[in-house]
Amino acid sequence: xxxxxxxxxxxxxxxxxDLMQKIIEYTDADTDQEHVRICVDCNTNIPDRTTAILHGxxxxxxxxxxxxxxxxxxxxxxxxxxxxxxxxxxDDMIPYLETPFLxxxxxxxAFLKWINTSKVGVLATDGTRESGIFxxxxxxxxxxxxxxxxKNQKLLMSLIYDYIKAGKPGIENxxxxxxxxxxxxxxAEKIIxxxxxxxxxxxxxGMMNNDMIDPTVILAQSALRAVGKKLKPTALIELVRGGxxxxxxxxxxxxx
Length: 256
Fold this sequence. Notes:
alpha/beta, 7 strands, Rossmann fold, four-stranded parallel sheet, 256 residues, 2 domains, 45% helix, globular
C-alpha cells in the first residue's frame, strides 16, 4: 500500500491545489502506482486567519481540527497545511491530533539555516507578519528578518486578497517589482513567499527566481520524505547537503 499524506486545505483553494501539484511533481515515480496517496480536505468553512489573529474574529481552530481528524480517519500518516498564517494556530491543534503534523514555518527556517542564510525578507499577510511566526522560527535559527514598508504591505495584501483569492484582473499593471526591490535594498539574501498565494502570483508574472523561497515547495518535499518516498534528483531539498535537513529528520523519525 502506498503511504498517505493528508492536506488540511481550503486556505485558499488554489493554494491547496498548488501544494498537491508540487507533491506530485517532486515524487520520483514512473507510474501512477508509484505516487503517494493524497487525501485533501478543502475546507472552505475555516474562518479567515488574519481576521482571527488581528481583529478578534472567529477562531479557525475548531474547523482546522475537524479537517485534521477527517484526514486521520482516511488513513493519513502525516498531516500538512497549505496556509502560512494558519500555522499561528499549530500549537493549539497538536493536542487533538494523533498523526505527525509537519510545520511549514519551521521546515522553511531550517532549510534557510542549512543554506547559510543570515538575513531574509518575509512577504506575508498582515496576520502572519504581526503574529511573528516566521520571525520567531527564523530567530531560532539565528536569521534576521526584514519586512516591506507600510505602503508595500498594503499592496501585498491587495495582491493576495483582491487579485489572487478574488481573481481580480489587471495584476500585471501593478508595481509588484518594487516590493521585491525593497527587500533586496534592505540586505535580504533570500525572500520568503510567506503566503501560499504569493508563489502563484509571482509565477504568473514570471518573476520567481532561485532567491525567492516558496515554503510550499519545502513542505511538499518534506512531506514526501516523511512518508519515505524518493524525491526527484532535481528537488530542492535533494540539492542541499545530500537531502539531509536536520529539522525534517527529527520531525520525521516517528513517521518513516
